[in-house]
């Protein structure tokens, strides 16, 4: 089993960092982060030779023309003369930074200045369709991908950028674009994608279920600063209405780095991925699946939080572990520096809720065994069996479909952020959950801590009164008072089933790393409505969960 590394964390420091992240998230939703030009004052034109090495990087605004005539607004940060990192011709490694969804080129002012001071030529730009850049929002489509290469072309022609040392760094939309750039431009040697996506289809439609709350928030963030293309407007309307979903899937597939992972592998691009366990826009499971398909140099870091809450403090110029790791990754793969201090090609996990860190050589090493807990009838969930019925016997449990039990995934952007701030994910009183709307199984208290690592999976038989429907699975950490804190959840939909006939259903919960304390219980809840998603179960229709001797229902838990 892989050796783990654990580090302690001061609670007051954690709260301070997390509170700042929440504030920045709120500012980001209002566009405040992208309107801070005071931080981008140009460097003085002349400095005495004796202090040249201490001179700040230069900064200038630029208009960069694209192949179709669209002009993108950009910032250029150039190292001061004499800054270490240049080759013999005075060329510096280039780092291209596309702005996040709804933000502009000034988003990365603090990072651009820091990169230039460290010997990088940094070009940050507003993605087409947003703010003062021309064109219409393309959502990492063919035009956006072509723009990445055009920005690189411009930088090589108009700045002292080294064509042999090109990297990209991005957050959110910028993170998705860095990976798409790696797939389509072999000149890019290293990328750092933070809170981005590997699979946009899985992010918007995992388990065949529309992630409506996240899509609505993304649309709301885009509306004040972006101009929708007709294609994007059609796909968004179809997603909200639940129609033409095969077209939406094809549209999202073309914008998914996972579709082109073989190109990234062929290019040998060094890929750094950072993500949050509770990212309500781009779930962590789609990213870990993408990571496992990469064959070149790669590293994955996962921490508690929601979309972009782990990284945003750096945009204020504050110290940030995620951005620090991204910089070290660039140092290794663009400058060849780092030595023993360089980042390993590995997986680094910050475990919930205690903040311990563990490192593994690859994703498969994070769990060493799987516990299979049988689901039984109503009653306590015991070691080896969930419920009071003997393992392997038949049972069924019915709920009224389309009704909310109160067990939910939380509120997008807030649920994961509260987990980061106060170790307070979505919480329920398990004994009070209405059995009319939810099927509930609960374990006896565990004598020893249980270390969950990976994606738990629920298998059951479903008999429904309607031909289509949706099940939501929730796994809770339950204390002695019956308070359940959400460990993980996920939706799973079905269609085209014969009403009244049982069929098998698997629900793969979103991946996580969670330590269940000794003395606590596990609770599994299945229901058919969650405000975060667009479910298919008709309100009032019957849904029955069951098990047979030939096909027993179970919860599979990956453990370390």
Task: Give a written overview of the molecule.
With 560 residues, this protein is an alpha/beta fold. It has helices at residues 11-29, 109-117, 142-158, 173-184, 200-205, 212-222, 230-241, 245-253, 261-267, 284-293, 321-335, 415-422; strands spanning 58-65, 71-78, 92-98, 121-125, 161-171, 188-194, 270-276, 298-303, 347-350, 357-360, 369-375, 380-382, 385-386, 395-400, 427-429, 438-443, 450-454, 457-464, 469-478, 483-494, 503-508, 512-516, 521-527, 542-547, 554-559. The strands form three sheets. Strands 11, 12, 13, 14, 15, 16, 18, 19, 20, 21, 23, 24 and 25 form a 13-stranded mixed β-sheet that branches. Strands 1-2-4-3-5-6-7-8-9-10 form a ten-stranded mixed β-sheet, sandwiched between helices. The longest helix has 19 residues, at 11-29. One of its GO terms (molecular function) is hydrolase activity.
Strand elements, count: 25
Q: Total helix count?
A: 12
Whole-angstrom Rg: 25 Å
Question: What global shape is seen?
Answer: globular
Mean pLDDT: 89
Overall SS class: alpha/beta
Proportion in β-strands: 25-35%
Largest sheet: 13 strands, mixed
- How far the N terminus sits from the C terminus, by CA atoms, comes to 9 Å
Q: Are there runs of 5+ residues with pLDDT below 50, and where?
A: 1-52, 378-384, 388-392
Protein name: CocE/NonD family hydrolase
Family: Belongs to the AB hydrolase superfamily.
Keywords: Hydrolase, Signal
Signal peptide: 1-40
